[in-house]
Design brief:
By secondary structure, the protein is mainly α. The chain has one domain: Collagenase (Catalytic Domain), CATH 3.40.390. The chain contains 4 helices and 2 strands. The chain has a two-stranded antiparallel ribbon with strand order 1-2. It is globular, with a radius of gyration of 15 Å. It starts with a helix and ends in a 9-residue tail after the last helix.
Length: 98
């Protein structure tokens, strides 16, 4: 999918394809999450795969909502919003010693 739609070689973790906004202003999109990439990234973060899948879904949804990460500042702003949504729905469990 990454090669076909973004003309980039190699895998990506999430792709989002927005549709024209509905008459009521709602957003409709297809969001594809790579479970293989999610598993790798979850392992790197020390998290369960399902939480990383949620993080990637949120990332795709933010793109549909108009967020981008073309600059460092925009990337950081998007990451902050993304992580707020991840924590809101799937709080990180307390780890022993913290």
């Amino acid at each position: 999918l990454n090669q076909r739609f973004r003309h980039k070689s190699g895998p990506t973790d999430v792709l989002a394809f927005p549709y024209t906004p509905a008459v009521d202003g709602s957003l409709i999109a297809d969001i594809y999450v790579s479970l293989d990439r999610a598993a790798v990234q979850a392992r790197e973060r020390g998290e369960v795969v399902a939480r990383e899948v949620w993080r990637l879904f949120v990332h795709g949804a933010l793109h549909v909502a108009g967020f981008a990460h073309e600059t460092d500042a925009a990337e950081e702003a998007m990451r902050r919003v993304q992580e707020r949504w991840v924590e809101r729905v799937w709080p990180q469990p307390e780890r022993p010693g913290k």
